[in-house]
Inverse folding.
């Protein structure tokens, strides 16, 4: 058992989810959760010093520069550079200080847009990623050969896990560069007391997979303890909902009349579908996922209560203003 676990990205959505359940579900572990204020993982020296001092048995590396499509389009070089630096600094520090196991994170957004569906781990390098997010996609793809190379040359116990869309409490709610679900939650909440239409791009038909952040945390913990292969592994849910159905649920939970939702069909729908195959992970683990509706209800409840009692705790800062500095943990 890995008793002392360092979690990077410990103040973002997946890391926060693990932090919220670690005492009740993993009481015999010692977790160290860090964000960018604790250590600048873009600085190799600072990363080495920090991991030398912490002396973790294992690392779960959630930290990344990520966000919605707007961020990827505006900053492809910065996102590519910073994510590659983050990943190599962490894995090198783990190697040099003998960390027993390291868990690296990829994303289903890295796959070629014309890859056969459902997406399988084996098709990661079968073509270029979508042009709108090629910077982040190539950075995440690099994790796969990184895992194989470090295992082969250094004998490291390092694995690569592939979640899909993540949502949950303490997400990034900045409308300029946040993913779709938190963006819509904030927009619906802030417009709940008006009669104005709420406009969404496209016709609402595209299908998406979103995994509740606490499930992401639990899946990573299962793999930390039980998965030791060099092949990457899909760990996200395969439950799909259309953009329209997600919007209707968010309207229901925020008290917004669904008739106010307007779809601007002059705007692109984006990729219609990019569902993933998690059969390897589920067959190994028997994992059961929180239904999207249940996770969304809890996320909206948290957002509403936090906005009313402690709005300063909601993460609304634009990531694009921070790309020159440390990653947002």
């Amino acid at each position: 058992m890995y008793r002392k676990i360092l979690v990077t990205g410990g103040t973002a959505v997946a890391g926060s989810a693990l932090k919220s359940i670690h005492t009740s579900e993993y009481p015999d572990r010692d977790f160290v959760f860090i964000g960018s204020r604790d250590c600048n993982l873009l600085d190799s020296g600072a990363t080495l010093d920090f991991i030398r001092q912490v002396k973790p048995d294992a690392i779960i590396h959630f930290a990344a520069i990520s966000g919605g499509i707007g961020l990827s389009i505006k900053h492809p070089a910065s996102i590519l550079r910073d994510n590659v630096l983050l990943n190599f600094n962490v894995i090198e520090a783990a190697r040099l200080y003998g960390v027993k196991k390291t868990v690296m994170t990829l994303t289903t957004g890295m796959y070629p847009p014309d890859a056969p569906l459902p997406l399988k781990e084996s098709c990661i390098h079968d073509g270029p990623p979508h042009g709108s997010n090629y910077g982040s996609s190539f950075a995440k793809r690099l994790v796969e050969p990184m895992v194989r190379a470090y295992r082969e040359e250094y004998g490291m116990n390092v694995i690569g896990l592939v979640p899909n869309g993540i949502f949950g409490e303490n997400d990034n709610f900045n409308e300029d560069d946040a993913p779709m679900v938190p963006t819509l939650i904030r927009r619906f909440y802030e417009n709940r007391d008006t009669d104005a239409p709420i406009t969404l791009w496209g016709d609402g038909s595209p299908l998406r997979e979103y995994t509740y952040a606490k499930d992401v945390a639990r899946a990573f913990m299962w793999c930390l303890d039980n998965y030791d292969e060099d092949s990457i592994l899909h760990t996200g849910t395969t439950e799909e909902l259309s953009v329209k159905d997600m919007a209707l649920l968010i309207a229901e939970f925020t008290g917004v009349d669904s008739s106010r939702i307007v779809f601007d069909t002059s705007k692109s729908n984006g990729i219609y579908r990019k569902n993933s195959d998690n059969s390897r992970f589920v067959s190994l683990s028997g994992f059961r996922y929180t239904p999207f509706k249940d996770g969304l209800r809890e996320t909206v409840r948290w957002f509403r209560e936090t906005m009313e009692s402690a709005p300063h705790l909601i993460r609304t800062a634009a990531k694009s203003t921070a790309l020159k500095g440390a990653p947002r943990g």
